[in-house]
Amino acid sequence: MTELTAAAFTARLTALADPVEREKMQRYFKTGFGEYGEGDVFLGVRMGALFELAKEFLELPVAELELLLDSPLHEIRAGALSIMDKHARRKRTPGERRKELYELYLRRLDRINNWDLVDLAAPHVVGGYLYPRDRAPLYRLARSTNLWARRTSIYATAYFLRKGEVEDTLAIAEILLGDKEDLIHKAVGGWLREVGNRAPERHREFLDEHTPAMARVTLRYAIERLPEERRRHYRKLKAATE
């Protein structure tokens, strides 16, 4: 029987470490620990293996998950968030557990400090919890000075998009259009692209109004699935305001 402790998870994950993989990951991940990733430390564990191990620890108590989030090792924190994500995805997960996971995520945003960590858990842990509730917390996150809080705000709306709702994505995208960070520009553009897949008319309306204010990378992501004629139109609209 699996021992449901942070120490047991850490020991199992550490046994999977590979020095070659560690070098690859250190080259690939350029942001993370601290505000922009200075000093993040990697074990060198493939994500597929990490996700498989997380399945064995789904019932890990919240206090033990928080211990994992305290780790300086990237994959240990990723493991905690994978457990949280997998548990949040399960239909039979009790509402109280969902609330605990959501509150843990927000309480420990200081440890969810890399784009992959946000992307892993924000849609179901945050978006899934808020879907039937007041979504005001997302708007507070969108206005935060914390980069990862802002990325969380837009990424969490992925859950709403899957349910066919686009308005929160559009509203938060509008808040983030003036952001200085490339990681926000790309996230906003990617989610605007998804709005286009689900609500083409609202996508067009948003682009018509906001293209001049978009970063170029945001616009590139947002229009990449449009016909070439429409892409050319929005590129010209952007160029005319520069």
UniProtKB/TrEMBL annotation:
Pfam families: DNA_alkylation (PF08713). Signal peptide: none annotated. This is 3-methyladenine DNA glycosylase AlkD. The lineage of its organism: Bacteria, Bacillati, Actinomycetota, Actinomycetes, Pseudonocardiales. Gene3D superfamilies: 1.25.10.90. CDD domains: AlkD_like. InterPro entries: ARM-type_fold (IPR016024), DNA_alkylation (IPR014825). It comes from Crossiella cryophila. It comes from the Bacteria.
